[in-house]
Amino acid sequence: VLYPVFLDSRTLLYLATTDDGSGPWLYTLHVQSLNSRRISFGVEQYASLSASADGARLVATVEHSKASLWRVPIKDDIAKETDAERVDIPTVGAFSPRLGQDYLLYVSAANDGHAIWKFANGTVTELWSAPQTRVVGGPAVSPDGKLLAFTAEDDGGTRVYVLDIARRHVRALSESLEVRGAPAWSRDGRSIIVAVNESGEPRLFNVPLDSGAPTPLVNGYSVNPMRSPDGEIIVYADADAGPEFALKAVTASGADYKLPDIRLPRGTRRVSWIPSR
């Protein structure tokens, strides 16, 4: 929580990050009821906040991310800065890259929301965008390369969407599930693995594409799954422990899978598998 500012004796504004490490965003808190809610849902990130003594004026510093994509070779030792090569993308900003069969997917800012783009043979195609809506984490490509799953957040909540890449048709997987973090595909491509809020805690569930009942995969805090190339292992983020979180894993059937002790800073919940490793 950063820069708490009183507008009056009942209303407090402040900046805070979300559980997935994004932000900071703008929140309001009713002092008497202690009810808080997020009131900014664009793609801009707030860096500071202040108010005049009478609460009539606010001053905020806002950041607009312009990240770019880079290609770095995998070596036996640490790659040098000169080894990195920028990927020439004809859009302003690009992040959360994902590889398809013969194309690259990425996310960029579009107006006051996010857009998902397909980059192939030097040409970009916008697959999806929505105002005042951001893509959480990054998109996930189905095993057959035909569908795309992604989590999007707006002022109505956070939902998982499935997009037919060829037809550019998109649908919400479920209107009732309160999801958290980015999704992943199951090994057979017939369900989505995503964190669903259960009793106030996110846990990984298998959510069928055919509107069947979700089934639990991990019994405990788990978010942002990433399936291995062979579909046998699913790596996910455990709960934050101070400024860090632990990386954990289960098998496709939900059995615990032992990983080395890997701890990452909050906000770096972006894990990818190296092909065939």
Q: Major β-sheet, in short?
A: 5 strands, antiparallel
User: How would you describe the oligomerization state of the chains in this entry?
Assistant: single chain
Strand content: over 45%
Straight-line distance between termini: 39 Å
What is the molecular shape? globular
Rg: 20 Å
What is the helical fraction, as a range of percent?
A: under 10%
Reading the helices and strands in chain order gives: EEEEEEEEEEEEEEEEEEEEEEEEE
Number of helices: 0
Mean pLDDT, all residues: 89
Number of strands: 25
Structural class: mainly beta
Low-confidence stretches: none
What does this 3D model show about the protein?
By secondary structure, the chain is mainly beta. It has no helices and 25 strands. Strands 21, 22, 23, 24 and 25 form a five-stranded antiparallel sheet that branches. It has a four-stranded antiparallel sheet with strand order 1-2-3-4, with no helix packed on it. Strands 9-10-11-12 form a four-stranded antiparallel sheet, with no helix packed on it. A hairpin with a 6-residue loop joins strand 5 (45-51) and strand 6 (58-63).
